[in-house]
Amino acid sequence: INVPKDSQKPREDKLLRGLLSEEFNEGSCLSRCQSSLYRKPSRYEPSQYLVSKLRSYEMLHKRCGPGTEAYKRATEQLGHDSRSVGECRYIVWIAVSGLGNRIISLVSAFLYALLTERVLLVDQRSTDITHLFCEPFPGTSWSLPLDFPLMGQLDSSRCYRAINWTRNIPSHLSLYFMHDYEDHDKMFFCERDQNLIRQVPWVVFNSNKYFAPSLWLIPSFQTELIKLFPEKDTVFHHLGRYLLHPTNQVWGLITRFYNAYLSRADETLGVQVRVFSNPDGYLEHVMNQILSCTQREKLLPELTTLESQVTNKSTSPKLKAVLVTSLYPEYSEKLRAMYWESPSSTGDMVQVYQPSQEMFQQTDEKLHDQKALAEMYLLSLTDKLVTSGLSTFGYVAQGLGGLKAWMLYSPTNHSTPDPPCFKAVSMEPCFHRPPLYGSQAKAVNSTRFVRRCEEWTTGIKIV
Ligand code: GDP
Question: Could you tell me which InterPro entries the record lists for this protein (predicted)?
Answer without folding.
Answer: XG_FTase
